[in-house]
Amino acid sequence: MYSKVHSIGITGVEGVPILVEADVSDGLPGFSMVGYLSSQVREAQDRVRTALKNSGFRLPAKKVTINLSPADIRKEGTAFDLPIAISMLSASGHIKSSALEDCVISGELGLDGRIKPVHGALSITAAARKDGKSVCFLPRENVQEGLVIEGINIIGVSKLKELVDELNFPGAQQKGEMPGDWRQAESCSYEVDFSEIGGMPLLRRATEVAVAGMHNILYIGPAGTGKSMLANRIPTIMPSLSLEETIEISKIYSVSGLLSPEMPLMARRPFRSPHHTISPQALSGGGRIPKPGEISLASGGVLFLDEFPEFQKSTIEILRQPLEEGKITISRVHGSYEFPANFMLAASMNPCACGFYPDRTKCRCTEQQVYKYLSRISKPLLDRIDICVESRMITYEELEQKEGGESSASIRSRIEAARKIQAKRFKGQKIYFNSSMRKGELERFCILEKSDREFLKQIYESQRLSARGYEKLLKISRTIADLEGSCEIRRAHLAEAAGLRSLEGKYWGGIYGQS
């Protein structure tokens, strides 16, 4: 007999419909599987046959053929164990084929017939609903994750026998129910706050502008001047996640196996801070079976690279394409995988190996040593960083200051107002932030008066900006104007934006030809 079961495979972070077909017929007893399978999927035949036996099912000694289609998509992982077992049981007459028409099945089998959790349950459920299915059977540990997707019934099962009973007698298993308000399951309060930081008005302002327009920012200055402290507080002033953003971010963590059973969604924006010894593959993602790297795990949030020049040059150069395109593509012999990379880059660094340049009363580095240290950051990568701001040594009076600065909640309210302006401005387009504007949007939304355009020309020539640097200056100016609620970009906005980029010339002017 012939039978088919609908399942879902994972490609990148998205689910892809997979049809599991089984044929049990007369002939020399055997078990064969086809359909562009990885070694993990091929091993399923041993797990499935043993699980069926230990669950009390006796299959006749016949020829069994399993096909996973479409054949041009590589099948990875262990989530096909359960649909393979169900298709064999249906082809052998243990399950009515009509019970399998409108459902998706996914899960890993243990040798005793227990159903184990799988990665990517959120993507599996979303793809099942998109494919028009009404029921999705998942391992019981993955039920909370699957319930996030509305419009499809989620049924959790823990044993193969339970699933067979549910298919033959619908209603035997209780459908999952989302507990209360999952969005409030985890408090969005943070352990740190901007109010704990006194002084540093320039760094605070630069950080606010960066977050308001999703601009990449570089902090440069001596050690112990608050660079990392500020960066660690960036998530506290970022706007709350929308439902769509929450699901997209959670998909990445679901595929990576980083979601807890108790908390099916990411309630906070990601903040990833990998050590400078990270490998290129760990940063970009990859492996034999490509998985998201730190770049993708930071999508929707912040990727903070402390001690920026200490990263391998080959590692940080990987950032160039994702910073431009908002995605990263990993190619393998058996296919290409696309992962999201829509993050805000925050980086910090010392100006030289000892950390005190250009203060020659403390810095003992030679000019050649300083140039060598700074040149670890290439010009193309530097051009992709919108804001460069300098930190200075903190005075004793500032350390003794009892009163903190403005709170994160207060700063966040201004940023949310600026983000609403951007959302209205770019409604119906595929961009959401000022930092993502292209040439057409710049010409439409960054109109200057004649005198202001002359002022911009002076900045362009004095700072010897590249074409990309010129565009970034306009984008930052647009964000500063949005923070003030101004419809027009004025000279003061241009001047502040130029100040937030001027340090690039101060430190890298002698290396890359800037003034």
TrEMBL record:
Protein name (record): YifB family Mg chelatase-like AAA ATPase
Organism listed in the record: Lacrimispora xylanolytica
NCBIfam families cross-referenced by the UniProt entry: YifB family Mg chelatase-like AAA ATPase (TIGR00368)
Signal peptide span: none
Pfam families assigned: ChlI (PF13541), Mg_chelatase (PF01078), Mg_chelatase_C (PF13335)
Residue ranges of domain Mg chelatase-related protein C-terminal in the record: 405-501
Residues of the Magnesium chelatase ChlI-like catalytic domain: 193-398
